[in-house]
Structure formats: structure tokens, C-alpha cells
């Protein structure tokens, strides 16, 4: 509870089983109440307008508007909204995007049963909530250079199996320029080769397959 007040929670997730699981956990707590559910980002915004809950949990991957877009839209109308992202991914770039969009928390679905209630109470009290593994990744990567938009573009094409020559043709650049971008990508990610760079890029959330 916030003082003597029950914490009102809104959950947005397009997976019915996940919604059921979260509803069951929240329903078992005396100091919490699930006041609404949404199946996509647009519905999350609409539900927030109607309910104005104390804490909102939003899935990262949803139809119509993803979690980060939903956070951005809600915070644009309600600057003091308390929102946490729900996700199966621990990539630090996604966490940074969520934070920049205005999320105060980031919860991994794999740890929900254990952490959910604690996280909701922390968020309702006005504090941020990030699991240790997310905090550690953010600390590890925050000081490192991020990939430039062009480097992300090159890495995406590498992930799709294009050769340096093919990427050069597609981006209307010289092959030497592509090789330079690849060296920079590998240096920034600490990768041993192009396959390793793709693997790290996916893990850290720079690209998705």
C-alpha cells in the first residue's frame, strides 16, 4: 500500500497467459489491485487515460505500438506516470531506450514471480526499479561508445548474410568504407569476428533478427 492506500496496477501485454499470471500474483497481495489490462500499446494509453493507475507494467513487444512507444505516449500526456517495462530481453540498449522514454523500471519476465511484488512496491513509493543484471549491464556499457546509425545499418545487413561487397552496393559506399565500419563495430562491441559482432549486437539489443 501507499500509506493505507491500495496500489492500483495496470498491465499491458499481448500474451493472455502472461496477463493471467500477473493478475494471479497481484490478486494474492492485500496491498495491490489489478485495475486494468491491455493487449497493445494503443489500448495501454487508452486504459491509462481512464484508470490513471499508481503503477503500469508494459510489455516491450506488443502490436500497434510497442512498449517503448506506449511509455513515450503515456508520459507525454501524464508526465508523472509510473511505468515499468516487462520483457524477456535483457539487452542494455533496450533498457536505455525504455529509460529515455520515461520508464522507471525494467522487469525480466523470467524473474517476475520472485520480483514482481517487490518491484511494484518500490515503483509505487516513487523509486526506480532495475534488476541487478540490468543495472550491471547498464554500468558496464554506459561508458562505452554506442554504435552509430550507419554502423547499426551495416551490422543488420551482416546479420542478414550480406558480404562486404553486397553491403557496399546496397548502401552506395565503397567496400573499404564498409570494412572501416566493420572494424569500428568490432572494436566497440569487443567482437572477435563478424559473426561474434552479430551475436553481441543481438544480445545488447542493437539489432533484432
Automatic annotation (TrEMBL):
This is Response regulator. The modification 4-aspartylphosphate is found at residue 59. The keyword Phosphoprotein applies. Keywords: DNA-binding, Phosphoprotein. PROSITE patterns: HTH_LUXR_1, HTH_LUXR_2, RESPONSE_REGULATORY. Residues 8-124 form the Response regulatory domain. SMART domains: HTH_LUXR, REC. Residues 140-205 form the HTH luxR-type domain. Pfam families: GerE, Response_reg. The lineage of its organism: Bacteria, Pseudomonadati, Pseudomonadota, Betaproteobacteria, Burkholderiales. It comes from Herminiimonas glaciei. InterPro entries: CheY-like_superfamily, NreC/VraR/RcsB-like_REC, Sig_transdc_resp-reg_C-effctor, Sig_transdc_resp-reg_receiver, Tscrpt_reg_LuxR_C, WalR-like. It comes from the Bacteria.
